Fold:
Amino acid sequence: MLHGFLAAPTGSVTSQLVERRPRHPGAKKKSPGQVSIDSASQHAEFVRLVKSCSSSKDLEAGKRVHARIRASDHRHNKHLANLLIGMYGKCRNLEDARRVFDAIPEPNLFSWNILISAHALNGDPHGARSVFDRMPEKDAVSWNTMITVYAQIGHLQEARGMFKAMPEPDTVSWNALLAAYAQNGHLLEASVFFRMMPEKDVVSWTTMVTAFAENGFLDEARRFFELMPQPDVAAWNAMVAGYAQAGCLIQRGHLQEARDVFDRMPHKNCISWHTMIQAYAAHGRIDEASALFDRMPERITTSWNVMIAAKGQYGLVDEAWELFRAMPNRDVVSWSSMIAVYAQNGHVEEARRVFERMPRRNIVSWTALLYAYVQSGEVELAKSVFDRMPEANLVSRTAMITAYAQAGHMEQARSLFESMTHHDVVSWNTMLAGYGQNGDVAQAWDYFSRMPVWNVVSWNAMVAAYDQNGHWEQAKLLFDSMPERNAVSWTLLLSTLAKSGDVPAARKLFAELPEWDTVAWNYMVAAYALHGGEQQQETVELWKAMSLEGFKPDAVTTIAMLSACIHKGLVERGRGLFLAMEGDHGVAPKQAHFRCMVSVLGRAGQLGRAEELSKTMPFVADSIVWTALLDSCRAQGDERRAMPVAESLAKSEPASVDRYRPGVERKKLAIKLELVTASVDHYRPGLERKKLAIKLGTLVTLLVGLEWKKIAIKLETLVTVFVVSD
Structure:
């Protein structure tokens, strides 16, 4: 039998407790007044604890508080029971919410309404409707809650039916249905309904401002805002958020408008500051975000989390860690964000240490660690984490598919994908991109054609598959067929034009882009570096213009610049750039940069320095390095140095096969390798260097094309291919 009517939570040891513990024989009885004071104090403490667990969504702590209540004299308290129902609902534990409700002998109206909300929060509209239908009596809150439930899942017909069935709709009811139209993008219906409202309050006006602002109709949002009798802080925040979102997605000028609205606000709350900080962070303007964060009167945990994530995204790992250490209160998002920061910047061991120190873990934190190994390319460790996860969801399974795809294990990726009971567009896109990155365009197209629904990312992934594998005409045709395009779509077209050698068209498109980013600049620099012919000086001019426009050159930009130096024979310029990379531009030289420098030195006839660099660089010289050096030996007629270089090439080639693509058939690779050998020993008459470069590009894609996390990395591979081949 349940003790009192506060049912024990599932898995709770207090289900074993007796109703009253025996008093110790020597214990003194408390006076009635003392009992009353202590009881009221304890009740207030229980209320505070349950509310705290509810706001933090800490289920385990909530169960412990529930156990204490059951063991106290307050186990019959209906107010605490209602709070527990709400707490379990917010913690996504509908079973215990129902258990507490079912144990109440006579639930009051609050009990019923809170249980409806619990079902709604857990995505159970049918359960919410069942509770609603069983209610002995209903008030406006009951009806309004059901309208909101249907609005949240887009069932507008049911929401309208509830509204029409209400005995006496109040302003809250009108606002609930208005929000239903607005939140589901039915702005015309929302406008008509707004005019029909018998009475409008600040919530009504703010709903309209928010709806139009969130959907990008800023002129209409501003019109409603200016007509408001007295805009509240929520309406001001909606305008700031609307301009901020447009500033990130459309044009930079709207971001300044967001700041102007923010500065004009008569009163700001934490959400106001957070919205503006988040806008700056999303747009990459970390200095402005930091300045606002420092001025924030009262910092909320979500703002700390945004700043940590932003610092990490731009490589400011130490600053992110200092923010994390300085946080007065950390939630699971804070810990997960710090794991992600380390993962994004290649500090996998630090990510693991943060994970091990977490006081509580959930599916998000486990997935963050999984992504750390995925992003570092450590597929076996990723698999180990995946197997140890207490539960796996769609996100974690998609992350594991990504790990398999990056490692070239498409059969395992396909097997995991096919075993999933549910697929979303992200998981479909992951498979599509995986096949494209691994050179299987036919399978990529097969997955693209079988997708139940496409989004712009799906189209971009298919265009990228064609682009990355040299099917540039198909890439252009598919681009022309896209129903919608975003900034990535245009950048992909720029990539296709640059790689196919259509430099004038690439330059024209670049000039017409609504907004430039580092990736777009890199494609243009690379286009001139690879195909500019006598216009190699244009590469240097683009480099200067890029810096003047406020874009910081990265690893890919410097590779393109080194490529231009190779073509022009600018040894000292290339050497100076290479030596100044880290100090002046904050770019640590990668293996691809050392490959380029070997080519720079070798082409200039400085074979001794090129050979020394190939042996002393902090990477094991691979076939690309030895091929470039061997080609330089041939061009300089240095047969004495060519022999040991050729031997090193022969030794390095098998290692690169095993490292990058264990599944590549040796026979196919041998055929490709013949092209390399032919290019070293003697060029066959009529074999153009451009054609050879394309064939070598296939080989290198075969070996190192799996570094596909960013378009920029693919460009890095492309530039390296042409550098060592030409």
About this structure: The longest helix spans residues 32-56.
